[in-house]
């Protein structure tokens, strides 16, 4: 990075600025937060409040003290690299700024007070005990599948199923010996047995007795949208339970019955049958969900949602370890290694790390789009699209088959979003063409509506975003303070609204007006139908 880039960059998930006068204990916090999240860079020698360039050249003792922070104030040590960037300080002298590049870590790091921080947006968030445990599960320092199941006993294990498994893998001892001597499936303690989560999920007679939502739900929708209430378009809703192997095989078999096939005469005179989705792809997307879901999240199940143009598989849990949406094709990390190894013995998991790459290759060979991965709250969504989506064809013609709404998305009193006053006032706000303003804001609100329909955001959040778009003109600069003052929001509500608007690319950061300042994006759009707007 150049000094110009350092000064102009906003503080984000992967970037922070700190004064040379920062206390070493305080510097440890963003370093730990970066290491526990996605990594990042700390620029030292610039005031994080005023962006005044202080430099580091006259503070040799202080610099050496700060360079020891990843070693002396982080437990365990954080791996970081340093770089000096030439600059001119606020006194006009040639100087340097220190960049400390922190790599994402497979370990959970804490400070000397045993506090764990994680980078969330532009803040270093202190984790609660439960959040810390979840981070340890995600990074593989601890595995939830190893956790003993309270009240479960050896009688909950299907010994005949264990026998079938050990016969398959060539284990010569008894099922009980296998459980006690391998992978911590069972432990004898005080004349009773402790049974692990993995043992219940893999070999249990009734895993749902202890993990009610450890199941797979298949939902088939008519059309390309997920509608609710009077417009509900669910045409199939099936739940699969049992141990992991039975649940997986039943879910895959049932999905096979829902796949469309096209048969035609090939160039060689033989009939060719093409399936809507390659068999390996639709199997692998379910295998991945069951293998890598976060079983510590008990409030929801794995859901396979089938639409006319795509299949979406939703699995509880974030991407584990260092796996990110951008590197998932070539990076492997197993949240549940014992479950993964078990499924490998049944040839569902071929080679570790092969699955997503092969999915991409098979979809490409079939002329289809690569799978899409997206994190929605605590659910990982994996989407594969068929040729209908790839060719961009409309699913519904002029008639709506009873599924398309004939009324606005938000009715006048829906969710309290619509005001009595007109959607946009007819003031100029400094723009030469008054008519262009509502047209442009209509386009921005169209983005918000789509996000509600896709369940990316709730209607409540959409109402907050709409109020900000209505309140501030395109040339107005605003941040949390201005939103709180104009709309009487609390700090959290104002901050979360800004974050959502930034994610939806409705606003853009503004330089030179202090930290966290934005303006509404101003573009020229075609006119949109306003009766769909909240």
Short description:
With 534 residues, the protein is of the alpha+beta class. The chain has helices at 3-8, 24-36, 60-67, 69-72, 129-139, 159-169, 175-181, 197-203, 244-257, 279-292, 337-345, 355-365, 387-390, 436-453, 459-471, 480-487, 491-503; strands at residues 15-18, 40-44, 80-88, 94-102, 117-120, 123-126, 186-189, 192-195, 216-221, 234-240, 261-265, 271-275, 302-306, 310-316, 372-376, 379-385, 507-509, 518-520.
Question: What descriptors fit this protein?
Answer:
single chain; 534 residues; alpha+beta; six-stranded mixed β-sheet; four-stranded mixed β-sheet; 18 strands; disordered C terminus
Give an overview of the whole structure:
The structure is a single chain. The chain is α+β, with helices and mostly antiparallel strands and 534 residues long. It is 32% helix and 18% strand. It is built from 17 helices and 18 strands. The chain has a six-stranded mixed β-sheet with strand order 10-9-13-14-16-15. A hairpin with an 8-residue loop joins strand 17 and strand 18. Helix 10 runs antiparallel to helix 12 and helix 15 packs across helix 17. The longest helix has 18 residues. The C terminus is likely disordered.
């Amino acid at each position: 990075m150049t000094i110009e880039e350092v000064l102009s960059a906003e503080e984000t998930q992967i970037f922070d600025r700190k004064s040379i006068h920062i206390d070493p204990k305080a510097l440890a916090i963003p370093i730990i937060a970066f290491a526990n999240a996605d990594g990042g860079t700390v620029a030292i020698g610039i005031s994080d409040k005023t962006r005044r360039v202080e430099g580091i050249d006259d503070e040799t003792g202080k610099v050496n003290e700060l360079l020891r922070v990843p070693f002396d104030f982080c437990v365990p040590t954080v791996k970081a690299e340093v770089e000096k960037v030439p600059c001119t300080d606020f006194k006009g002298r040639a100087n340097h700024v220190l960049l400390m590049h922190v790599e994402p870590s497979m370990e959970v790091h804490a400070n000397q007070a045993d506090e764990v921080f994680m980078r969330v947006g532009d803040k270093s968030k202190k984790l609660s005990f439960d959040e810390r445990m979840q981070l340890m599960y995600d990074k593989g320092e601890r595995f939830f599948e190893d956790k003993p199941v309270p009240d479960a006993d050896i009688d909950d294990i299907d010994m005949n199923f264990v026998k079938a498994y050990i016969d398959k893998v060539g284990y010569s001892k008894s099922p009980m010996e296998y459980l006690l001597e391998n992978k911590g499936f069972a432990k004898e303690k005080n004349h009773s047995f402790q049974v692990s989560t993995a043992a219940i999920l893999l070999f249990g007679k009734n895993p749902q007795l202890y993990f009610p939502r450890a199941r797979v739900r298949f939902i088939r929708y008519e059309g390309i949208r997920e509608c609710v209430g009077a417009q509900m378009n669910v045409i199939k809703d099936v739940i699969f339970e049992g141990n992991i192997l039975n649940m997986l095989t039943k879910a895959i078999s049932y999905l096979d019955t829902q796949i469309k096939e096209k048969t035609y005469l090939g160039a060689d005179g033989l009939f060719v049958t093409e399936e809507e989705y390659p068999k390996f792809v639709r199997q692998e997307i379910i295998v991945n969900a069951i293998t890598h879901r976060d079983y510590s999240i008990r409030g929801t199940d794995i859901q396979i949602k089938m639409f006319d143009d795509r299949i979406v598989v939703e699995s509880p849990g974030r991407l584990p370890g260092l796996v990110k949406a951008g590197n998932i094709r070539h990076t492997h990390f197993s949240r549940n290694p014992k479950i993964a190894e078990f499924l490998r013995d049944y040839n569902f998991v071929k080679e570790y790390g092969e699955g997503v790459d092969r999915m991409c290759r098979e979809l490409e060979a079939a002329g289809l789009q690569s799978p899409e991965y997206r994190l929605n709250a605590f659910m990982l969504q994996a989407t594969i699209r068929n040729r209908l989506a790839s060719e961009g064809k409309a699913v519904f013609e002029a008639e709506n088959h009873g599924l398309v709404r004939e009324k606005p998305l938000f009715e006048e009193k829906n969710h309290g979003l619509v005001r009595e006053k007109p959607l946009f006032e007819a003031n100029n706000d400094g723009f030469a063409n008054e008519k262009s303003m509502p047209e442009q804001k209509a386009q921005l609100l169209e983005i918000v509506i789509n996000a509600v329909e896709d369940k990316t955001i709730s209607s409540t959040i959409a109402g907050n975003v709409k109020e900000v778009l209505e309140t501030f003109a395109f040339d107005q600069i605003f941040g949390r303070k201005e939103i709180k003052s104009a709309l009487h929001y609390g700090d959290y509500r104002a901050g979360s609204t800004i974050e959502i608007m930034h994610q939806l690319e409705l606003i853009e950061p503004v330089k030179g007006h202090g930290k966290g300042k934005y303006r509404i994006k101003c573009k020229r759009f075609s006119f949109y139908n306003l009766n769909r707007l909240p």
